[in-house]
Amino acid sequence: MSTKTEKIDRLAELTAQTETSSGSSLWVEAFRRLRASKMAVIGACIIAAFVVIAVIGPWIAPHSPIAQTWRGDVLPNQNVFVGPRGGNWLGLDHLGRDEFSRMLEGARQTLLVGVVSTALGFAVGAAVGVAAGAASTLGGRAGRRFDSVVMRFIDMMLAIPSLLLAVSVAAVLGQSLTTVMIAVGVVQIPIFARLLRGSMLAQGGSEYVLASRALGVRKRRIVLGHIVPNSLSPVIVQATLSLATAIIEAAALSYLGLGNPDASVPEWGVMLAQAQSYFDAAPSLAVYPAVAIIITALGFTLLGEAMREALDPKLRG
Amino acid sequence: MSLLELDGVKVHFPVKKGVLFDRTVGHVYAVDGVSLSVEAGQTYGLVGESGCGKTTLGRAILRLVDITEGDVVLDGTNLAELPGEEMRGMRRRLQMVFQDPLGSLDPRQNIESILSEGMAAHGIGADREERRTRIREILAKVGLPTGALSRYPHEFSGGQRQRIGIARALVLEPDVIICDEPVSALDVSIQAQVINLLEELQEQMGLTYVVIAHDLAVVRHISDVIGVMYLGGLVEEGPSDTLYAEPLHPYTKALMSAVPIPDPAVEDTRERILLTGDLPSPSKPPTGCRFHTRCPWKQDTLCATERPELKDAGNGHKVACHYAAEIAAGTVRQTVPGAVRPPEAETAPAEVPAPAKPADDGRTADPGGRAGRAAEPGKTAEPGGTAGTGGTGGKSAESAESAETAQGGGTAGTGTTPEAGGTPEAGDAVQADEAADADEATDAGEAPKTGEAPKTGEAAETVEAAEAAESAVTKD
Ligand SMILES: Nc1ncnc2c1ncn2[C@@H]1O[C@H](COP(=O)(O)OP(=O)(O)OP(=O)(O)O)[C@@H](O)[C@H]1O
Ligand code: SF4
Ligand SMILES: [Mg+2]
Hints:
The structure holds two protein chains of two kinds. Chain A is an all-alpha fold. In chain A, about 75% of the residues lie in helices and about 0% in strands. Chain A has a single domain, classed as MetI-like fold, CATH 1.10.3720. Chain A has helices spanning about 5-15, 25-35, 40-60, 100-140, 140-160, 160-175, 175-205, 205-215, 220-255, 270-275, 285-310. In chain A, about 45% of the residues are buried. The model of chain A is unreliable at about 15-20 (pLDDT under 50). Chain B folds into two domains: about 5-95 and about 175-345, Rossmann fold (3-Layer(aba) Sandwich), CATH 3.40.50; about 365-475, no CATH class. In chain B, β9 and β10 form a beta hairpin. The radius of gyration of chain B is 25 Å and the shape is globular. Adenosine-5'-triphosphate binds next to β2 and α1 of chain B. Chain A: It holds the Pfam family BPD_transp_1. Chain A: It comes from Streptomyces lycii.
C-alpha cells in the first residue's frame, strides 16, 4: 500500500524522467521492498554476522581451537568442568580446549557445509529442473515423455525421508566432511528440480511467452531469455531457506557420526554431539552450538521469507 | 484473392485423462469449421459470447495452437502446412495484439528489449543503433515518449501498456494484425483512444486487422466486415452496416437486442430477445444447428438434425440458419414463448420469464407480440436487404417444394415489394416467378409444418405476400 504522498512523488518522478533516466527493473524494486522489511533486515544482519565470524573468526580466536591447553583443568569422568572465566569466555570443553575459539572455528565449518551442499543441490537440481521444464514446454511428445520420466525419478527421491537419504549417501561414500556436504546436497536436488520445473511450466503457459512465440522468437531464446529468468525467484527464495535446513541437516549427520572423522576439528553439529555425553554436568557445552545453529538457521529463514514476499508478483506496484 | 483466407479451420483440443499414460477421452471443439476471408486494408470484426472460440481462432491463424484441420492462407501461402522454422519466419507478416496488456509483456524486459526482440528474431536492422531509430519512430507513432525505452512494463498505465503491445507488433511491419480483445482490459475512457489509434495506424500504414471483441459497439465502430461466432462456428457474416441494420440469425438478433441504445426514447421501446439456457459445452456441441438449444425460433424439422451452412443471403451477407429468410419475413414465429419481449414486458424483472402462460399462447394470436412483430416485415422491406431475401426465397423454392418452399415463397413476396422493385437484379423475374408458383403450395405446405391449421394472421400475410410477388412480376 502506498500512501498519497508516495503516489504523488512517484508521479513526479515519472514525469521528471528524461530519456537518459532508466526505469527500475523488478529486481531493483524487489530489493527496495526488501530493504523496507524488518524481517529481511534482521535476517540479513544475522547472516552477515555469521559470515563475518566464519571468515575472520579463526584469526581473532584468542586460543587454538584444537590444542588441549587446559587438559588438566577438566575431569569429565568426575563431572568437573570449567565454565566461563577470564581467559576462556565460554569456558572449556571436555578435553580442556577453549570453547569460544572452537565456536568461532566451528562457524566456518558450518557455513562451508551449508553453502557447499546447498550450492550442489541448487546446481544439480536447477539443471535437472531446467532440462525437464524445457523439454516439457517445447520438446513436443518426446520432450514430455522425457520430462515425465525425470520427474517420476525426482518424486521417488522426494518420497524418501531426507535424513534417511542423506544417511544412505553418507554410508555409501564413507565418513568425511565431503560426504556430509554431498549427502545434504543430494537431499536438496529434488526440491530444486521440482520447484524450478513447476515454475517454468507455469511461466511457459503465460501470455508473454505466447506473445514471444507470436513475434517469431526462437524457442531456445524463449526458454533461456524469458521462461528461466522469470522462474528463478521462487528458487532463490528456496535456496535461502535451504541454507537453514542444510546447516541443521549437516549438524544432524555430524551428530550421527557421519561427518569429519577427525573429531578434533570443531563443527557445531559435532560439538553438539560431543556435548551430549556430559549434558547433565555441563549443559552449556550443548547450548552454545545449539543456539548458534538455531540463530543462523533463523537468519536464513527470515531473509528467505522476506524475499518471498518481496518477489511476489502480486505485490508488484 | 483475399489477403487472408480461412477454409474449414478446426481446432479441437484433446481432453486427456490418466495418471501414468494419457488417454484421450474426448475433445473440446473450440473452433469447428470456420471459413472466412479478410481483404487487404480492411478490418474483420469477430464477435461472440465468451468461450465461443474467438481467441482460439485468432491463435490458430498464427498457428499458436495446432490446427486440427483446414487451411489458413496468407497471401497465397498455406500456413497450416508450413514447417516450424518457415512458420516462424511468416510470423513477421502476421502479428497479434493481446487482451491482457500487462500479462503479455515480460515483466523483466524493458521496453527497448521488448520492441527489439522481434526485430532480432527476424534479422531486421543491422545493429542496435538502427533498431533503436526504428523503435523511436514506432514509439512516436503509437504515442509513447521516447523516454519509455529504458522503463519496464509495470511502470506504465494500462493504456500505455497496450500501446507497447501495439508497437511490438508494428515494428515488424506486418500485413495482418490480429487484435484479441485489444481494449476489453482497459478503462472505458482509454478504450476509445486505443481504438482510434488502431484506426489511425491502419490509415497510415495500410494495415489489415482481425479484431476480436465481445463488445459489439467496439467492433461496429472499427470493422468493415463482421463475423458472429457461436460455439466454434460462424453463424452470420456481413458488411458491418448491413449486419447491424438487419441481423438475420436469431443469435445475432439476440446479441444486438442486448445492446442498450443511448437514446432513452428508443431504449424504452427496444425489443429484447432473452436467450434461455446456458451456452452448451464446446466439448459436447448440440447436434444440427448449434444454436437450437437456445434458439427462440427453433423449428421441429432440420434445426436439431442438420447443421446449417453459412450461405449467402445476398449482398455478401451470409447466415447459417435454415429459417433465416422465413424469420426475416415473419412467416416463422418464435417457438419459445416469452423469449422475445415486447417493450412493455421490460418492466418485469429481467431474469423471470414472461408471466406463465400456457405454452400454446405464444403461438396463437397474441396482440401485443404480434403487433411488435408485424413491424418487422416492414423493416426488412428496405432496398438493401430486400433483394437478398428475395434471392434466398427463390433458391429454396428451386430446391424443394415442401413446407419450406411455401415459406420461401412468402419471403420472396415480402422481399420484392415495390420499393425493391426499383433495383431489380438479373434473374429477379425468374425468382419472383417461382416464388409465385410456390405460393400456391402455401396452404398445403404450412399445415404439416406447424401441425396446426394456418392461423388467420399468417394467412393474411401470405395473401399479402402473394400479391406483392405478383406485383413484382408484373413490374418486371
Ligand atoms: N488449450 C486449451 N485446451 C483445452 N481447451 C481449451 C484450450 N484453449 C481454449 N479451450 C476451450 O476452448 C473454448 C474456446 O475458448 P476461447 O478462449 O477461444 O474462447 P473466447 O471466445 O476467446 O472466449 P473469451 O471471450 O472468454 O475470451 C473454451 O471452452 C475453452 O475452455
Ligand atoms: S437453424 Fe433453427 S435453431 Fe438454428 S438458428 Fe435457425 S431457426 Fe434457430
Ligand atoms: Mg478470448
